Amino acid sequence: MKELKSPVDILKIVDRSNCRKCGEPTCLAFAAAVINGRRNLDECPVIPKEELAQYSIKGRRGADMERDQKQFLDLLKSRIQQTGLEQAASRIGASYANKKLTVPVCGKLVSVDGQGNLYSEIHLHMWLAVPLLSYILDCQGVPLSGQWVSFREFSKGMEWYGLFHKVCEESMRKVADSYPELFDDMMDLFGGRKAQDFHQSDIAVTLYPLPLVPVRICYWKPGDGMESSLNVFFDSTGEKNLPVESIYALAAGLARMFEKIAMRHGVVVS
Ligand code: SF4
After folding, report:
1. Which of 42, 90, 100, 198 is an S-S bond match for 204, by CB 3.0 to 4.6 Å?
2. CATH code at 9?
3. Does residue 138 belong to any structural domain of this protein?
């Protein structure tokens, strides 16, 4: 079996026609999506079916994780069907009208109906649907403290931190290294606000992916022989307003969206 380790390996087996039959704008975008676990090799109709079995994708866990996320999403939807959305509105900083709960998500309005279906003016990645439904169900409505803590400081944070650092912080750092406009996009596209003098970072931006779960993303540029660094901070009340597993899913969803934005600008994040 031949292991495909990078987008370049995949480019060698598609015909590079940029025909878009896979739904991606270019073969390069498709190749990067396969390596990142968001697409499957068999979604390119140009690769002969009989050849697919001879390839494996290095470190491929993304597809499995997406399947898990889908099952978890179905579970959350069934819980939403038994929940009073109207009663949840004031607790979670949302509004209720026409049988839908509307939540501000990164400056955009996202509505949820009684079946757990989402409606929005923006394309919603499934990885953000999970934390949003989880927020509606489990948010305790604790007011923000204004104190920022690392994911590690949550009660179950240490257990999850290895995965969190790799999937969320390291992925975001790689995007920021290759696509420095990322932080401007956070402010322009996602209603982010620049935070001043935070832990001596070169730039820090606060996003509001959920009203009571703000996220502060801090980036230190490379220099003096040191690699760049990126850390994500949360309000200390975070785990009271969202279970730690869903905080992880929220940050992972943001990391994926940032990768997509960089790719849309022709940047391949390796
Ligand atoms: S379908 Fe295959 S050949 Fe066409 S753009 Fe996608 S990856 Fe490229």
Report:
1. 198
2. 1.10.15.40
3. no
